[in-house]
Amino acid sequence: MTVVFFERVFYNIVAADCKAFMESIKVLLSCVEKKSFQKGKSFSREDGWKGMGMKERVVVGMSGGVDSSVAAYLLKEQGYDVVGVTMQLWQECGGVSLSDKEEAGCGWKTVEDAGAVAQVLGIPHYVVDFRERFSCCVKDYFVEEYLRGHTPNPCIVCNRRIKWEALLQWSLELGAQYIATGHYARVVKLPNGRFSLRSSVSSDKDQTYVLYSLTQEQLSCTLMPLGEYEKSRIRAIAREAGLPVAQKPDSQEICFVPDDNYGGFIDRAAGERVPGPGNFVDEEGKVLGRHRGITHYTIGQRRGLGLPMGERVYVTQIRPAANEVVVGREEALFAREVCCGQVNFMGVEDLEAPVRAFAKIRYRHKGEYCRVEKTEDGGLRACFEKPVRAPAPGQSVCFYLDDYVLGGGVIVSARGAFLPGP
Q1: For the segment 29-69, what is each residue's pLDDT rounded down to a tens digit?
Q2: The pTM is what?
């Protein structure tokens, strides 16, 4: 992809960056003086900018939170030409009051906070509308998975398809060499030439699990400056830099379901396609009561069942075809063997032989060691040394060698727990 130098000059005018604009003019005049430009000739962004002493440009996804704000600050301090971008993904703010918008996590406050940080840092800030793509790739996927009786992780899909795939394309068109986020992970290039992710210094905040599906191309264009820091230090840096979001709390819920009511969201999104009430059954098929609909339940759930069993029982299986929810004792949730599909390898190109790896079956899982091997259908089978609790179809399993991501996939079945197969 090529671009003439005038794009850079225009960019600095739009950004109202007077100093950068004057520097661009000086370089332009110098090039004209030296007859560096030929009629009709263009140059690559990377080679052309470096050749003229220009900084490498990085687009930082800014959510209005402290992490992405500090990421932008750190990269600017490191000498990058930083551009802030806030992605509008799902927000529909019309017809509600400002207080309601803030209560619902609406994008107005996000954009306002990100813009305020950009102003303090003296960097340009854009708002990009990815709502249509987000709806197709993330929200529709979320609904369809629940209708299948699965428990999806929309953040993993959003990271690959939106925060990297869509944003990276937009950023390259802007002339950037990199994109960056406020995730707690470290991008590394291994001796075998492949890119991988290394666990964050801050183990409590490590986010490599939700990033295992990133491609080699995406990783090669990614900067993650927070991976070398503890969360407490990030807060301190934000205060020291005078960032207005230094004390802003972290977001916890799925962004497009701010009230945490997944069942209600699916009811509204899927309408008549949502299965109605059905039976709670035990492992032998005995009817124990009535449930509200399978989209209101997930594997391992105990609360909200409304069953007078006289003992603690848990959701151990969801059967969409029969519209049944199976409940049982906690020991029925444990499995030693987990199979996954939709595999993405990161640290290796392929798995040629079984390996001993460390694996997480959900974001907050502390992890267990397992033997990983390929299956005939191209998936992976993990045989755990200790049973893992409630591996749920639709969730992902991420494998590590030491603290580097080997790869991962989406759980389709488990042996020893009462889960549906592929």
Answers
A1: 433 343 333 222 222 334 334 444 578 999 999 999 999 99
A2: 0.83
Burial (Cβ within 10 Å: 0-12, 13-18, ≥19) of residue 43:
middle
> pLDDT tens digits, residue range 181-210?
999 999 999 999 999 999 999 989 999 999
- Give the C-alpha separation, 227 to 144, whole Å: 33
Tell me the CA distances in angstroms from 212 to 42, 171, 347, one per residue in order: 37, 22, 10
Q: DSSP per residue over 325-377, as a string?
A: EEEE-GGGGEEEEEEEEEEEESSSS---S-EEEEEESSTT---EEEEEEE-TT
The rounded distance, in Å, linking the Cα atoms of 321 and 283 is 16
Provide the CA 339 distance to its chain's centre, in angstroms.
22
- For 222, residues 6+ apart whose C-beta sits below 8 A from its C-beta are 164, 178, 179, 180, 181, 187, 214
User: Looking at the annotation, which residues are catalytic?
Assistant: 158, 255
**Cα–Cα dist 321/243, whole Å:** 52
Which helix or strand (DSSP H or E) is residue 381 part of?
A: strand 380-389
